[in-house]
Amino acid sequence: PTALPTAHEPMLLVAITEFVANSAAFAYFKAGALQRNISGTMLPRKFPLQLRTKSMGLFSPQLQELYPDQPMELQLSARQQPLISCHPDALHGALLGSAEAFVVLPNGTRVPTFLLNIDANVTGKPIITGNRLRGTVRLRGVHVPQVKRLENLLKFGLGLFGVPWANSECIPIP
Among candidates 130, 140, 132, 129, which has minimal Cα distance to 91? Predict the structure, then answer.
């Protein structure tokens, strides 16, 4: 065996196993930490689907009739523990989630309107540039079993806004 070359600069070694990643995913899932509420103000203005009954009326005309142009919120949550697999070039993840939609009435009351199951497959690659830990995320597939039009719109929106946002984030290495 040959000796490893001596490093003249600081070096970072990161190791992760599927067991560690899946154990963390299990702990977060069981603790209820894999939930997020999304309001219309959190979405970019250019996002193709705004969280208002007027926009959602494309998929459910009754919604617009019952609650004309009211704001909506989504509660995203994991239905099952995310599954992560480690490969030499990337991390692959299967996310099985649900999105429950609510109409927000003028008095602040949230009225539940529909529940969708959303399954996604993602790939993430860590990249170190300079003193920054970055990563790239690629959406390999999204499946919304109940509504094909919404699935296509969600794929488009995530590809256009969600994935580029995730790829623009970076963490400084001390």
Answer: 140
CATH code reported for the domain at 35-170: 3.15.20.10
At 152, which amino acid appears? Answer: N
CA 41-159-118 angle, to 5 degrees, is: 75
Question: Where do the structural domains in the chain lie, given as residue ranges?
Answer: 35-170
Q: How many CB atoms lie within 10 A of CB 115?
A: 11
Count Cα neighbours of 15 within 13 Å in the Cβ-side half-sphere: 1
Instruction: Note whether 155 and 143 are within 8 A (CB).
Output: no
DSSP for residue 4? P
Q: Mean pLDDT of residues grouped by 10 in the chain (174 residues)?
A: 63 74 93 91 79 82 89 92 88 88 94 87 80 75 64 62 58 48
Q: How far apart, in whole angstroms, are the C-alpha atoms of residue 71 and residue 38?
A: 11
Name the residue with tokens 């390999």: 140
